[in-house]
Amino acid sequence: IEGMTLFDQVKNKLRTTFSYDEKTAELVAIGAVKYAFLKTDAQKDIIFDIDQSISLHGNSGPFILYAYARAQSVLKKNKSEDIPLRELSQKIATNTLQQEEDNLLRILTQFPEAIESTTTHYSPHLLCAYSYAIAHGFNLFYEKHPILKAEKDIRMFRLRLTHATSIVLYNT
Q1: For residue 127, what pLDDT is reported?
Q2: Alpha-carbon gap, residue 51 to 159, rounded angstroms
Q3: Residues 134, 168: contact at Cβ < 8 Å?
Q4: What's residue 89's pLDDT?
Q5: How far apart are CA 106 and CA 83, in angstroms?
């Protein structure tokens, strides 16, 4: 199958499955196809499944894009205060973290190692696995803990954690 044919099939499936407009379908299709190919180790055969590649639940480009969009949406809804990242460590030092906060924070701290491993081994699938881990960790955190409705100190920590997640997802 030719690349453009595959891309068109994915774009059409996105438009019918999610009722995306043309521009959104095109952008998500690019991410879905690229991610589906890059997440596979170069030493293995690629088995492309359109439904799996556009899924919002699982190891797919749209799943990661959705986590990033979710984080951005939370940050845009925050009207209260600026959220400087340099203060992220304050809550860590003074309070107990919820399990999902701790897990996400641990994943985020692995960013330099993920980049180094990916580039050292010329293996983009490693970065894809890391991106998926972040998206999965953020979604668990988001679903279990209120961010904007939390008490002020907790809210600020969670906003900083969301901001850091957004930055790392953007850069992966």
Answers
A1: 97
A2: 33
A3: yes
A4: 58
A5: 20
Q: pLDDT tens-digit profile of 143-167?
A: 999 999 999 888 888 999 999 999 9
Angle between helix axes 124-144 and 22-38 (nearest 10 degrees) is: 120
Q: What is the pLDDT of residue 80?
A: 63
Q: Which of 71, 56, 73, 64 shows the shortest CA–CA distance to 20? A: 56
- Locate 168 and state its tokens: 């790392």
Q: What is the pTM (predicted TM-score) of this model?
A: 0.88
**What secondary structure does DSSP assign to 86-143, as a single string?**
GGHHHHHHHSPPPHHHHHHHHHHTTHHHHHHHHHHTT-HHHHHHHHHHHHHHHHHHHH
Cα–Cα distances in angstroms (integers) from residue 128 to residues 86, 88, 120, 154, in the given order: 27, 26, 15, 30
pLDDT tens figures, 77-88: 987 666 665 655
Distance separating alpha carbons of residues 93 and 10, to the nearest angstrom? 46
Distance of alpha carbon 4 from alpha carbon 85, whole angstroms: 41
Spell out the long-range contacts of 7-13 with Cβ–Cβ below 8 A and sequence spacing 24 or more. Answer: 7/33, 9/50, 10/50, 10/53, 10/54, 13/50, 13/51, 13/54
Give dist(CA 78, CA 91) in Å, integer: 19
Q: Which residues of the chain have pLDDT under 50?
A: none
